[in-house]
Amino acid sequence: MRPMADTPEHTIELLRRLRAETQQGFADVKHAIDDLTAETRIGNAHIVGLVRFENYATTKMAELDARLARVEKRLDISDPSVSET
Question: Is the pTM of this model over 0.90?
C-alpha cells in the first residue's frame, strides 16, 4: 500500500494526466470537425456549380428551341410527329 502522504500527489498526477488526455481528445475532435466543415464547403461549392450549369444549359436549350421554331416558321416546315405546345 502507498503511504498516506503519497496519495494526494498521486491523485494530482492522475488528474493532470486526465486533463491532458481530455484536452488532446478535444483537440482531435475539433480537428475532425474542421476537416468535415472544409469537405462540406467543397461539396457545397460543387453543388452550386452544377446548379448554375444546369440553369445555363436550360436557358441555352430554351433559346435554341425558340430559334429553331422561328427558323421552321420562316421556312414553313414542321414535323408532324411533334406536337406543338
Answer: no
Mean pLDDT of 8-25: 95
Q: Which amino acid is at 85?
A: T
Backbone dihedral angles phi then psi of residue 77, each to the nearest 5 degrees: -125, 150
Mind listing the pLDDT tens digit for each residue in 18-63? Answer: 999 999 999 999 999 999 999 999 999 999 999 999 999 999 999 9
Radius of gyration, CA atoms only, the chain: 34
Taking the C-alpha atoms of residue 5 and residue 55, their distance in angstroms, rounded to an integer, is 76
Residue 55 Cα to chain centre, angstroms: 20
Count Cβ atoms below 10 Å from residue 46 Cβ, excluding itself: 10
Does residue 67 contact residue 61 with C-beta atoms inside 8 Å?
no
Q: Which three cell numbers stand for residue 35?
A: 476537416
Q: In sequence order, what DSSP letters do the residues of 19-41 get, joined into one string?
A: HHHHHHHHHHHHHHHHHHHHHHH
